[in-house]
Write a structure and sequence with these properties.
Elements lengths: L3 H12 L3 H17 L3 H19 L19 E4 L12 H15 L1 H6 L7 E5 L6 H12 L3 E4 L1 H4 L6 H15 L3 E4 L3 H4 L9 H15 L7 E6 L9 H4 L2 E4 L5 H12 L9 H8 L4 H17 L7 H17 L9
Parallel strand pairs: 2-5, 2-6, 3-4, 4-5
Antiparallel strand pairs: 1-3
Helix pairs in contact: 1-2, 2-3, 8-10, 12-14, 13-15, 14-15
């Protein structure tokens, strides 16, 4: 039967309003009962947890079981209640299948633990800017009905020796206390190659700490996501710490159509010249195409029209291309 420490932990989590931690301990008890051969009791416990979760989530798009981080963590972690799930994100079938597998393992994590296994929870997203990495992290949190915690790099990385690693310790301790999806955006700032010529000893220590923390067991099975635009800058040792590496690519023609149609709603768009639109959108990121489409919709609204034209879209896509060109490095010829 369950021990006093588990009962105490359940009471503490309930008093703090952390329902997800309460359920996690209950599932640990169920797993222990199953290992002792009391499978009927284990099934009853799991069914009770599932029922409680469904009741808590009824009427809510996303269940957020606890408040934003406080104290020292408030400057390190920002909580963002997810606004959508994976069904709202445009991605290729292979990538969607791998994310669905993460969701399944997370949803059935108690079954895996009964057999001595843990769900995949450490994921690295790589791809060019605007390819949907951050949006996919938010959608994954929405699919799991968990809050998204974004690590504030400006609060994490400091110039004082040992302070960054100490703050990183606080973040990983939080992943073990409160179940959620934790996103390290621009991850190369933390996971840069230790052999880089411009590296400093302090950042090597930070990376070593990160590698160590990633190896630690986590009873909440919180999902930790690193996202980077520059995978070539990452230390090779990181690959062994992540369960999965997922590559995000620029959208295909079919995906461009889907992005534009999704963002044109609720406007009408009769007789669009898709050939011209696709040609101009090629090479733009998912976020750039979405923003260009939204700007085309705004143009139609302000013109008091009920439909968006090809010219509206071409104009806004061209604006994005010009913005993109403005950030490209220019070659300066010395006289």
């Amino acid at each position: 039967m369950s021990n006093a420490k588990q009962i105490l932990a359940m009471l503490q989590s309930k008093a703090e309003g952390d329902d997800e931690h309460f359920y996690s301990i209950a599932l640990q008890v169920a797993a222990a009962e199953a290992r002792q051969g009391r499978r009927t009791l284990a099934e009853d416990l799991r069914a009770a947890v599932d029922k409680a979760r469904e009741k808590a989530a009824s009427g809510q798009t996303v269940a957020v079981p606890f408040a934003s981080p406080r104290g020292d963590l408030a400057d390190l972690i920002e909580m963002r209640p997810p606004r959508f799930d994976l069904g709202s994100v445009v991605m290729n079938a292979s990538l969607r299948g791998r994310l669905d597998d993460v969701v399944l393992q997370q949803q059935k994590r108690d079954w895996l633990r009964e057999h001595g296994k843990t769900p995949n929870r450490r994921v690295l997203f790589v791809g060019p800017p605007g390819s949907g990495k951050t949006m996919s992290a938010e959608a994954l949190a929405g699919e799991l009905r968990l809050p998204l915690f974004v690590i504030r790099l400006e609060g994490l990385i400091t110039r004082f020796m040992g302070e960054t690693a100490a703050k990183l310790r606080l973040v990983f301790d939080e992943t073990a206390r409160h179940r959620g999806v934790y996103l390290f955006d621009e991850f190369d700032a933390v996971g840069g190659n230790r052999g880089a010529t411009n590296d400093v000893a302090e950042m090597r220590r930070v990376l070593n700490s990160f590698l160590q923390f990633m190896e630690e067991p986590n009873s909440t099975d919180s999902v930790v996501i690193g996202a980077t635009n520059y995978p070539d800058l990452l230390d090779p040792a990181l690959l062994r710490r992540f369960d999965l590496v997922m590559e995000f690519c620029p959208p295909t023609e079919e995906e461009i159509r889907t992005i534009i149609k999704f963002n044109l709603r609720p406007m009408k768009y009769p007789n669009l010249s898709w050939k011209s639109i696709l040609a101009l959108a090629e090479g733009l990121s998912q976020s750039e195409i979405a923003r260009a489409t939204e700007d085309a919709v705004k143009t139609a609204i302000l013109a008091e029209r009920k439909n968006v034209t090809t010219n509206d879209l071409l104009r806004r896509l061209n604006d994005r291309r010009q913005m993109q060109a403005a950030f490209r490095p220019t070659t300066v010829t010395k006289l």
